[in-house]
Design brief:
The protein is mostly beta strands. The chain has a single domain (2-736), classed as Maltoporin, Chain A. The chain is 5% helix and 57% strand. The chain contains four helices and 47 strands. The protein has a 22-stranded antiparallel beta barrel. It is globular. Mean pLDDT is 88; it is low at 1-30.
């Protein structure tokens, strides 16, 4: 099967060249014209080519074809975007144009806004079950705050699920692949009565264990995920529509095992493991005390036992002179996750996360109804969030008692915003948006302690935010198929608390990005070629990064700190081309470069050497790191090539997609994560007059060995790494009724 898929990938262009062969009937000629993609990125239905912002849109079928099954996979289809889970944890972290966090705790807001059907998910751990029955995703780059519920510095990811339909439909997609992985997704949709439409969708994914324990041979990596979503649309009156959506997800999947990048000697010196020669080799073992606090059995593997429930109601009312939208949402999520970060049977870098999260939000928007010269929108957003939990850890050392860091966080945020566009002429428009936001955050903790030490008194830390942000810009339409735009925007991301160590929970400040951006959107050659591009410069203030601080009595503490000034510049270019019927070529490239421009950072080694071993730590030594590059891949390149053709009443499709990620310096391990290519391929067929198709697919076709993160928690000379799965192949059957 692997050889067949390699051949399918390389044969796509050959199929295109041979498209005039007598045995082949090309698809209809009008497929050379690129269709308008309707988006709601600006809270109203528009063609994506009429939106003067840097925007990438990927449809649901394309997401399936490109293997985007979880939010982490979005990075492979969008330029200048990275999504990873630090050290293999189940929590994704999003970065757009270099703006984003790298942490594994659950309590801090994301620098990229994540929305599912217009509902904000302020904590990214809740998004892992969202990618099923998806209509499209919209990724906006740059600060956002005048259109969306929450204020962000990096951008926004909008996941739009399929809505109920008046016609009755049903369908499913079934996959089976390497390592006995199988995935089944299905839906039913249609009219329940003349004023009530409904849709029920579900997905389950099982199997796929691809790693094994170096000592026991036990497998690791099985998925065990299930989610179900129900949507109802009630046509209450000719002018009022009520949409109700409820989603439940459960994830009991195995975790990711770490790989040893160098020889590793256990703390007691009894065992030395050699460097792991394969990405599939790992190790783990749950200690009795960690099993007790996590509620797991002694034989349990690293993994998750997470579940979440989302409920939201959206009311749309036509007031005659304006449109009113109300979105009321309630989210709950429970995180229970055990990870073994030393990658051995020794308990030298193990962690257990536990959290209970609740979010209530209410958004109201009033917007102009008619497409006149002035389009306006005003809105307000309220959120009430609570996050209880913490984590237990075991690290190298003589004292093997568990370390516990509990905390209780509460957030209340209120924002009011407006977004407006005014056509000065038929070609020239001005854009103006403003937002005011007030937020209060508090975190109560009794500090970090070993279980054999009495619990200390609880301390409450507080931080607040009162900020004005906005966007001002201009759009100029050269002709019906070409748009130029430029803007300056100010975005704000909340401050927060470091929960890795309860004694360093003093708050860090909000970060601010002032963005200068210019771009174009164009459809060329009778709309056969779509070419969009943008360039940007970011003035980055109080960037939140992993740093150090010192306490006079207790010494060094890891903490999220603020860099006074940084800068990032770069751009993106996206192209879609249909040179002739059946052939579609898409390409994208993103480039970014950044540096600290004002940053004096504490030198931990020098500070430790300048003070007594047991303190007090009165001498703090800092280094000027101005000019040092920021830590993100500078270049990424991706695209896809697909060809559709017909032979003897059957429709065929061959497709390959690929993505290149540049190297990145990894500060936590003082090493470089190498660059890599990922290539996927698909070959499918089905009767031309039927609604079912069968196909073959391959992911990571070139069997590239790459790493997402590295860490040095276990004190080894060469840190452990979180490996990625190699080549996988499988079959897929899709059908609609």
């Amino acid at each position: 099967m692997q050889r067949l898929l390699v051949g399918a990938s390389s044969a796509i262009l050959a199929f295109a060249i041979a498209q005039t062969a007598a045995a082949e009937t090309p698809v209809a000629a009008d497929t050379t014209v690129l269709e308008d993609i309707v988006v709601t990125a600006q809270r109203r239905a528009q063609s994506s080519q009429d939106v003067g912002v840097a925007l990438s849109v990927i449809g649901g079928e394309a997401l399936q074809e490109k293997g985007v099954n979880v939010v982490n996979d979005i990075e492979n289809v969008v330029p200048n975007m990275e999504v990873d889970s630090q050290f293999g944890s189940g929590q994704p972290q999003f970065r757009i144009r270099g703006i984003g966090a790298r942490e594994y705790s659950s309590n801090n807001a994301s620098t990229v806004g994540i929305y599912v059907d217009e509902v904000a998910h302020p904590y990214t751990i809740t998004t892992q079950g969202a990618m099923f029955d998806v209509s499209r995703i919209e990724v906006l780059r740059g600060p956002q705050g005048t259109l969306y519920g929450r204020n962000t510095t990096g951008g926004a990811v909008n996941i739009i699920t399929n809505a109920p339909t008046a016609e009755r439909h049903a369908g499913f997609s079934a996959e089976y692949g390497s390592y006995d992985r199988h995935r089944l997704e299905g839906y039913v949709s249609g009219e329940i009565n003349p004023v009530l439409l409904g849709r029920l969708a579900a997905v389950t994914e099982q199997g796929g264990a691809w790693q094994y324990h170096r000592d026991t041979g036990q497998s690791l990596g099985d998925a065990d995920k299930t989610a179900i979503r129900g949507r109802l649309t009630w046509l209450a009156t000719p002018d009022v529509t009520v949409d109700l959506s409820a989603t439940y997800m459960r994830d009991k999947s195995d975790g990711l095992g770490m790989r040893l990048r160098g020889p590793y000697t256990s703390f007691d010196g009894r065992v030395t493991y050699p460097t792991d020669t394969s990405r599939r080799i790992t190790g783990w073992q749950l200690s009795p005390q960690m099993a007790a606090v996590s509620g797991r059995s002694l034989g349990s593997k690293p993994g998750r036992d997470n579940d979440g429930f989302d409920l939201n109601v959206r009311v749309q009312a036509d007031l005659g002179w304006a449109q009113l939208n109300s979105i009321t949402a309630h989210q709950t999520f429970s995180r229970s996750e055990y990870n073994d970060w030393d990658g051995t049977r020794f308990h030298e870098s193990d962690v257990y996360f536990y959290n209970d999260l609740k979010v209530f939000s209410q958004e109201l928007r009033l917007s102009s109804k008619d497409e006149g010269r002035l389009n306006w929108m005003v809105g307000g957003h309220y959120a009430d969030e609570s996050l209880d939990g913490g984590f237990y850890t075991e690290f190298r050392g003589a004292n093997t008692n568990l370390i516990n860091t509990p905390y209780d966080q509460n957030v209340e945020a209120v924002g009011v915003f407006t977004h407006n566009s005014f056509e000065l002429t038929d070609k020239f428009s001005l854009i103006a948006g403003l937002r005011y936001e007030h937020e209060d955050r508090s975190l109560t903790t009794s500090g970090t302690r070993r279980l054999n030490v009495p619990e200390g008194p609880s301390v409450t830390y507080e931080t607040s935010l009162s900020e004005v942000s906005g966007r001002f810009g201009a759009e100029y339409r050269l002709n019906p198929d070409a748009l130029l735009y430029a803007s300056v925007a100010r975005g704000v991301k909340s401050g927060g608390f470091t929960t890795y160590n309860g004694t360093s929970a003093t708050p860090f400040k909000p970060e601010i990005v002032i963005s200068y951006e210019a771009g174009f959107k164009s459809d060329l050659f009778d709309r056969r070629l779509r070419l969009n591009g943008a360039v940007f410069f970011y003035d980055y203030q109080d960037q939140q990064i992993q740093g150090l601080e010192y306490d006079r009595e207790s010494g060094r503490r890891g903490k999220i700190t603020n860099v006074p000034k940084s800068e990032i510049y770069g751009g993106e270019l996206e192209m879609t081309w249909t040179p002739f019927s059946g052939l579609t070529i898409s390409q994208n490239v993103g480039y970014k470069k950044g540096k600290y421009t004002e940053y004096f950072a504490i030198d931990g080694a020098a500070t430790d050497a300048a003070n007594p071993v047991d303190g007090p730590w009165d001498i703090i030594i800092a280094n000027d790191r101005s000019g040092e590059p920021l830590q993100f891949p500078e270049l990424n390149y991706g695209g896809s090539v697909s060809y559709d053709w017909r032979i003897g009443g059957y429709a065929f499709r061959a497709e390959t997609n690929y993505n290149y990620r540049d190297a990145i310096y990894n500060a936590s391990s003082d090493s470089v994560l190498p660059s890599y290519w990922l290539v996927n391929a698909n070959l499918s067929m089905g009767p031309a007059d039927s609604d079912w198709r069968v196909g073959l697919w391959a992911r990571n076709l070139l069997d590239k060995d790459y790493e997402e993160t590295r860490n040095g928690f276990n004190g080894s000379a060469r840190p452990t790494a979180s490996p990625s799965i190699g080549r996988t192949v499988g079959v897929r059957l899709t059908a609609e009724f």
